[in-house]
User: Fold this.
Amino acid sequence: MAPDTARASALAPDCEVMSSVDEDRFVIAAICRDGAWLSMRAEEALDLDGWR
Assistant:
């Protein structure tokens, strides 16, 4: 399966991105698009400083 690599500029200007931890999974999603989400084990997710 090929990932959807749409650039953020292709999203609606009022599109929100949300994240949560559900049990042991970290989930992040663009709520304005169907299927625009990802999930990984929470222990593998980088903290904010790790993304910089």
